[in-house]
Design a protein that fits this description.
13 helices, alpha/beta, single chain, 2 domains, binds pyridoxal-5'-phosphate
Length: about 350
Amino acid sequence: MHKKLFIPGPVEVSQDVLEKMAMPMIGHRSKEASELQRRISDNLRKLFYTKNEILLSTSSGTGLMEGAVRCGTLKRAAIFSVGAFGDRWYSIAESNNVPADKFEFPMGEAVDPKVVDDVLKTGKYDLITVTHNETSTGVMNPIEEIAQVVKKYPDVIFCVDTVSSAAGVKIEVDKLGIDICITSSQKCLALPPGLSICTFSEKARERAEKVKFRGTYLDLLALYKYIKKKDYQYPTTPSLSHMFALDYQLDKILNQEGLENRFKKHIEMAEIVRNWADKYFEVFADRNHLSNTLTTVKNTRGISVADLNKELGKRGFTISNGYGSLKEKTFRIAHMGDCTVNDVKELLQNINEILNLK
Ligand SMILES: *Cc1c(COP(=O)(O)O)cnc(C)c1O
């Protein structure tokens, strides 16, 4: 039996979208490929509220995170971490021999914009990374306040991981001054995993021109130059199947559902799960910085999360245990992508039945 996914990626993919993955291949050097990729980029610009170029990579989001740190840092990167995905930026920098410092905040708390200011004020850094929505804790960082601070430092490249929020939460890239904004296919876009997307500003391009060793496969400047020169084609063979599905899904999101409706739906789903958590458990993260795409619930009843998931599995659902050290101490319910208010209500009803919650 298929278990409906309420985990923070991959998420449920609609049947019609899945079917697009099975379309016959086209040549990746054909005019059709150019048209497909240009249309995808135009639509992604609407999703990210940007005039910047869009880069696609046949890798998961981590691939573009690696490309961003490596191609964007000349001096030193400042990594702001509120959990596992913030830490990932730091290990990427370390393993690529990119000088970096990590500034951490306690689990469940958000980045303090004042600390960002204090760090950038030192003049030591020329790139910063922020996780917009920390999937390990359920915190959504105050990206607008952070952006206000970063704007005071025009030499700093602003990289934001919106892997678990883009297409579920409004992220206005140009207004926020984000240079590289990254997402993956398998979260709020509700596609199968395997493709990642980023926006790439003129400032990021100028910076990358000055960085000597940018690697090959994840060289963002090489991707940029190739699509400019070859009318939206890519230097290596991209996952055309993902592009067929993405093209179709973007049309659905932008022209059938409407972006504002999709954002509103995510807020509604989040409120339902938070209210449920308040009633029977507790919400784990800082109340002022709760994610709209997943809720981390504090296991105040001391239930066995593993057993709960086993029982849910028999009924055709699955949720996530806590991440890392938060395992069994918390559990996570994702409400992102094409998931609906009714799906969420059905899940919670089933949890109530299993745990005998009234
Ligand atoms: C899932 C996730 C990632 C990792 O993305 P992949 O596509 O698996 O590489 C990075 N950051 C956040 C916030 C995520 O939720």
